[in-house]
Recover the amino acids of this structure.
């Protein structure tokens, strides 16, 4: 019975680590079961950090499983447990090692954070995004080339951007906290009422992506979805022309 429990406690973390490695690094039958396709220039940086963090967790899980396995094998079920008041070495170990890992992760991710959150592009925003319960409103510059003016072009729940170009979005909320999330772009930004946020990305593939609200924002949160269409530059200009012909200053 002791061997049964020892092997059981070891097999679960081993299986979890094997599944994780196979999924994250596209090995064998688990290929393409981990993250959705990456469709922005910075997405691979995010995926790399995600895998590094999870690889560390996988090592911790594996080591914990081995320790439990050894402890169960060495346990004599016919003898009472031995009380230990404390162990300075163990306490230092499980305090200093996690602290060192956290410091390493903080330093390791700093460059990716700076690139994606701090180095704000100088380009004028392509569109203004206003989150409302429970829809996404998108405004494009009108004939005057400026946002937040009377001739803005207006679209509900559909954002169109050109492929292979820097896209800058200006985000705000009309009511509660929302979160602008596009998983395939590895893009997520909370939107706090009373503040204006900017996000930027360079899409690398043409296609339709789902925009979701990743912050519980009320009873209709589940239905707060929109479409992000990444199109060719020519198609983008045609769509703006069609939008200009049908809307101007609506929803302001």
């Amino acid at each position: 019975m002791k061997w049964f429990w020892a092997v059981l406690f070891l097999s679960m973390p081993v299986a979890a680590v094997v599944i994780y490695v196979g999924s994250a690094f596209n090995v064998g039958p688990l290929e393409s079961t981990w993250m959705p396709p990456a469709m922005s220039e910075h997405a691979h940086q995010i995926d790399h950090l995600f895998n590094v963090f999870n690889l560390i967790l996988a090592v911790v899980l594996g080591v914990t499983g081995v320790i439990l396995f050894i402890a169960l094998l060495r346990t004599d079920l016919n003898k009472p447990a031995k009380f230990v008041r404390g162990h300075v070495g163990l306490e230092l170990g499980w305090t200093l090692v996690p602290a060192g890992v956290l410091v390493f992760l903080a330093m390791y991710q700093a460059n990716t954070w700076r690139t994606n959150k701090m180095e704000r592009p100088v380009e004028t925003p392509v569109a203004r995004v206003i989150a409302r319960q429970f829809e996404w409103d998108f405004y494009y510059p009108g004939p005057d080339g400026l946002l937040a003016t009377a001739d803005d072009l207006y679209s509900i729940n559909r954002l169109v951007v050109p492929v292979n170009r820097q896209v800058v979005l200006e985000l705000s909320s009309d009511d509660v906290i929302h979160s602008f999330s596009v998983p395939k772009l590895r893009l997520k930004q909370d939107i706090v009422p009373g503040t204006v946020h900017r996000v930027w990305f360079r899409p690398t593939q043409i296609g339709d992506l789902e925009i979701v609200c990743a912050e519980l924002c009320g009873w209709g949160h589940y239905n707060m979805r929109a479409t992000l269409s990444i199109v060719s530059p020519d198609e983008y200009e045609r769509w703006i022309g069609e939008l200009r012909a049908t809307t101007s200053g609506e929803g302001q």
Observations:
- The longest helix spans residues 43-74.
- The radius of gyration is 25 Å.
- The CA atoms of residues 11 and 148 lie 59 Å apart.
